Amino acid sequence: EVQLVESGGGLVQPGGSLRLSCAAFGFTFSNSAMGWFRQAPGKEREFVGGISWSGGITYYADSVKGRFTISRDNAKNTLYLQMNSLKSEDTAVYYCRYGTPVAAYWGQGTQVTVSS
């Protein structure tokens, strides 16, 4: 059974940093591209960034480019999202995603709140 478990969210002041983690179970993580998404209150879920199976290719939404970094540790079956220079508009529930041609899998999400 595919399972994704996010952690690392919390309350942070504007300009601060957080690192989110996503532990993956039930599939071959090291062969799989992964993604991060977020959903703010009253808004649709949006793409944040993605990473290739090897970690050699990363891509980001314009809104986070230069501030967020996605990485992975295939030995630990874990995906990361390093978030720097956080802004109030980054406040959202953050989700990691794994997809196949026939299904998409999501974690339960972790709340990130950026506020002074």
Task: Give a written overview of the molecule.
The chain is built from no helices and eleven strands. 0% of the residues lie in helices and 51% in strands. The model has no long low-confidence stretch (mean pLDDT 97). Strands 2, 4, 5, 6, 9, 10 and 11 form a seven-stranded mixed beta sheet that branches. With 116 residues, it is an all-beta fold. It has strands spanning 3-7, 10-12, 18-25, 34-39, 46-51, 58-60, 68-73, 78-83, 92-99, 104-106, 110-114.
Radius of gyration: 13 Å
Distance between the termini: 40 Å
Structural shape:
globular
Helix/strand-derived category reads mainly beta
Helix percent band = under 10%
Number of helical runs? 0
Mean pLDDT score: 97
- Could you give the order of the helices and strands? EEEEEEEEEEE
The total beta strand count reads 11
Low-confidence stretches: none
Q: How much of the sequence is in beta strands?
A: over 45%
Largest sheet: 7 strands, mixed
